[in-house]
Amino acid sequence: MTIRAALRAHWPEYLMEGAELGLFMLSACAFTVLLFHPDSSVPRALPDATMRRLLIGIAMGLTAVALIYSPFGKRSGAHFNPSLTLTYLRLARVAPADALFYVLAQFTGAVVGVLLAALVFGARLGHAGVNYAATLPGPHGATLAFVAELAISFVLMTVVLVVSSQPRLARFTGLFAAALVATYITVEAPLSGMSMNPARSFGSAFFARAWSGLWIYFVAPPLGMLLAAETYVRFRGARAVACAKLHHENPTRCIFCAFWGKRDA
What we know:
By secondary structure, the protein is mainly alpha-helical. It has a single domain (about 5-260), classed as Glycerol uptake facilitator protein, CATH 1.20.1080.10. The chain has helices at about 5-35, 40-45, 50-70, 70-75, 80-90, 95-120, 125, 140-165, 175-185, 190, 200-210, 215-235, 255-260. It starts with a helix and ends in a 5-residue tail after the last helix.
């Protein structure tokens, strides 16, 4: 399918992908303001930063679940992450034209989501304690942040591939992914800020002007997920890879299955 034909046929899915990441970013910014801005009552009532990370992890995990199992997520596949889309492109489960527009939509959605948060929260979103919910390397430096992003991305993609290929578990793929997001925010965030998502990091960095460590989030998450895919295929074979949707068994059309020949869109 040509780029023009893909855009004409699949533009609703592209818009849904952008909207999903936009809503995710809006949620991330809102909960970061609530839990980390000094004028909020929550930091005073709950000074332990680990507990507040736990709360934001739960909130973002629930946000991910809501998006994955929403009508938009069921139809688009709920990637809202270029790393995931590019990995499924490598696995021949996403057409190149669809991958291109998904990635463009994801980056656009991330920027728009933070922009909407800035309009809602104003100067509070830019406060040093919030910093547009930017993902930044922790005090141990860029090398450890890179390794951490690589590792958590590898594990997430491995879990998605394994669970989605099991008929009894496939419909729970989104829950497994969301549980990892919640866990990572609680445990891993002090090392790298917990991104796994180049578009998510770019959306925050664009407004925070935090460019110095951005390369980590552009390189480590895609590399980690691609390594997970290569490992999975080596052990299970390419035929074991399921469709690129996180929630597939629903009545909405699937633009991915039509590409790799499972069923018509």
